[in-house]
Specification:
The complex is a heterodimer of chains A (about 625) and B (about 190). Chain A is mainly α. Chain A has helices spanning about 5-15, 20-25, 30-60, 70-105, 110-130, 160-185, 200-230, 245-280, 285-300, 315-325, 330-345, 350-375, 375-385, 385-400, 400-415, 425-450, 465-495, 540-550, 585-600, 605-620, and strands at about 560-565, 570-575. Classes of the chains: A mainly alpha (about 625), B mainly alpha (about 190).
Amino acid sequence: MAVVDRIEQLEELWLERPGVLGWLTTVDHKRIGILYFWTTILFFAAGGVEALLMRTQLAQADERVVSPETYDQLMTMHGVTMIFFFIIPMTTGAFGNYLVPLLIGARDMAFPRLNALSFWIFLGSGVFMYSSFLIGQVPNAGWFDYVPLALRQYNGGLNIDFYALGLIFNGVASTIGALNLIVTIFKLRAPGMSWNRMPLFCFALLAASLSLVFALPALTADCIFLELQRKLGFHFFDVAHGGDPLLWQHLFWIFGHPEVYIIVLPAFGIATSIIPTFARRRMVAFPLVAMAELLVAFIGFGVWAHHMFATGISTATLVFFAAASMMVVIPSTIQIYAWLMTVNLGTPDFRAPLMFIGGFIVFFVIGGLSGIMFAAVPFDQATTDTYFVVAHFHFIIFGAAVFPLLGGIYYWFPKVTGRMYDERLARWSFWLTFVGTSLTFFPMHIVGLLGMTRRVYTYRSGLGWDAYNLIETIGGFVLAAGLLLIASNIARSLRVGAPAGRDPFHGGTLEWTVPSPPPHYNFAVIPTVTSAYPNWDERDREEDLRRLERGDLVLDEAHETPATTVNDAQLSEILEMPPESPWPIVLALAVTIASFFLLTSHYATATFFLALAVLTLAGWHVQEPVEA
Amino acid sequence: MTTATLPVRVARPKGWWGAVVFVATEATLFGTLIGTYIYLRLHNAHWPPPHVPKPPLLTPTLLTVALVLTSIPLHVASRAAGDGRRESAWRATTASFVVQLVYIVWQLHDYVHTIDVYDPRQSAWSSIFVTLLGADHLHVLVGVLLSAWFVLRISSRLTRYRIVGLQSTVFYWHAVNVITLVVLVVQASTHL
C-alpha cells in the first residue's frame, strides 16, 4: 500500500463527527484540550475582573466601589476561580491533554471517554459555582473557607454550600483527569521511550497528577464533612460536641499545600520544554531535574502545617514543619540552576516564549525567597494575615505559574493552529505583563510589613499605605492590558498569522515531528524513540518514514494505538481505542443536575439523578471498542 | 506489522493501572476518614461519649469475614477470564456476587438502625463513625453493582474489553475488602 493510501485510511479511521455534535461527543484529546483551553480562559477572565474590582476598591483609602459583603464574595471567587477553574484545568486539562499524547508518541489518552467526562464534569462544576451569582449567594468565606465562619450559624445562606458542593464535583473532574494522565504516561509512551527518555514536561505532569490523586481526597472529605455539618447537623468542627475547628484547617492544607506544587509543577514542565528549544541544547542535569520535579511533589505532602503556624499548635509540630518547609528549597534550586545553566551553556534566542520563561525565573526566585522566610516560625507569626503573604503567593502562583503558561501559549500556538503569532506584539505583551506583575505584587511586600492586613475591603488614610496601594492598582491594570494584548495577538494571528509549518522553532520533542495542526491520528507512523529529544535524532525520523512506507507500526487497519511496558517502554500490545461517545456529557449533565438538588436539600431527587448517572455507565460500557 | 505477530500480553493492561490509581485515591479517602477519627479521638476525653453503647461487633465481624473470603473466588474469576475460560470465570463471579449482595443488604439494613442509635447529630464520635461506616458501605455497593454488571456481561461472551474490566473490578474488590477489614478494626477499637 502506498503512503498516501495509508494516510487516507488513518484519516477515515480517526475522523470524528462534524459540527457542534462532534464537539459534544468528542473523545479526541486535542479537541478536549481545546475545549478545556477556551473554558478556562473564560474563567481566567472572570477571576481577573474580580481581581480588578478588588484593586479598584483598594486604590484609595475609604473607597466605596463595592460593599464589604461584595468584596468578600469577590475575594473568595477570585481565589476559587484562579485555582480550581483556571490553573489546574488549564495545566492538566488544556496543556496536559493536548500535549502529553503528542509528546510521548501516542494517538490519544489512555481513556478517551473518561477524558471527555473529566471536561464535562469540570464545566458543570464551574457553571454550578458561578450560578451562585444569579441568586446573589456567592461563596464568601475565602478560598480556604475556614470554619467556624463557614458554619451555618455564621453563614446561613447557600453561599458555602455552593463552595463545598462545587469543589467536591470539581475534585471528581480533576481526579479523573489526573488518573488519565498517569495511566497515559505509564502505558502509552512510544516504543523506546523509557523513563530516562521521557520529556521533562511529562515528568512534571506526572508529578502534578500523582499529587492531585493523593491530595484531593483530603479536600473532598473536608467538604463532605462541612456539608454534613451544615445540612444534616453532624459535628466535625464545633467544640461543643467534641469537634475541632482546626480539623478543617489541617485537612484543607493537607490538600492545599500539595496544591501549590500541583499549580507550579506543570509550569516547571513548560519551562523545561521552552528552554532547550530556544537555547538550542539539551537540558542540563536532565535526570536530576526529573527527580527534582517528583521530589517537589513528594515533599509537598509534608509541609501543610506551615500555613497554620499562628494557630497555636505545639512547638514540636512547628519545628518539624518548619524544617520540612526548608527542604523544598533543595529540589527547587536544582531546577533553577538547571534552567539557568541550560540557557548559559546554549546559544539562547530570546524570542517571546523564552522571555516569559526569563520573567518566570525572576518571579520564582523572588517568591521563593519570601517563601523561605515563612519557614522561620517567628517571621511567619509576625507576618501572618498581612499583605506580605499575599505578595509572596502571588509571585508564586501568578509569576511562577502563569508566566510559563503565557510563554507556553505562544510556544505551542503554531503547533495547535498552524499559524505564527506576531513576535513583535508578543514581546510587547511580555514587557507589559512583566512590569504589571511587578507593580501589582511587589509593593504588597512593603504594605504588608507596614502592617496592612489581608482580606480587608478598605483601609484608613494616613497609615502610609496609600501610595503603595495606588501603585498596585495601576499595576493591576497594566497587567490586564498586557493580557489583553496577548488575547488580541492570538485572535489576530488565528486569522492572518503566517503559516507555521511543521517545526518553526526546531523543538526537540515529538510534537514537532507532526504537521501543524496535528492530524486526528497524531502520528502517521508510531515513532520509535532513542533519546529524550527525538526530533533532533534525524536518522530515527528518516527511519520512521521508511517504516511508514513498509506499514510497520502504522496501525491503519483499526482505531488503534500501541501500549508499552511501564519502565522500558517495550511494545506490549495494540489497544483498540473507543469511538466518540455521547455518554460522558450525559453523565456529567446528570451529575450537575444532582448537585443543584443537593444544594437545595432535595436529597431524593438528587439521588435519582445520581442513579441516572450510574445507569448511563451501562450505555457507556455496552459500546465496546471494535476488536481488529 | 500486524497485531498477530505480537505476544498476547507481556504487561498489565491500562485498565488495571487505571484501577490501581482509582484505588489509590479511594484508599487516601479512607486514610483521611480514619485520620479524622483518630484526630477527633485525641481531642475527646470520652470516646465514645458516656452513655452511648459501644458498637456491636459479632454481626459485622461475621459479615466481613464472609466478604473478605470472596477475594478467593474473585481471584479465580480473574485468572479464568485471563485464560479465556469464560464459564468458570462466570461461575466464580456469580458466587462472589451472591455473598456480596447478602453482605450489603444485611449491612444497609443494620446501618439504618446504626444511624438511629448513634445519631450523628449527637456528637463528633457518632458523626465520624456513621460517616466512616457509610463510606465503606458505599464502596461495597459500587463493587456489588460492578459484580452484577459482569455477571450479566460474561454470561454470554468474553471480549478483551470485558476481561480487562473484570480484572480491574477484581482488583477494586480486593482493595475494598481490605478497607472493610480496616474499618472493622476501627469499629472494634472502641472495645479496647
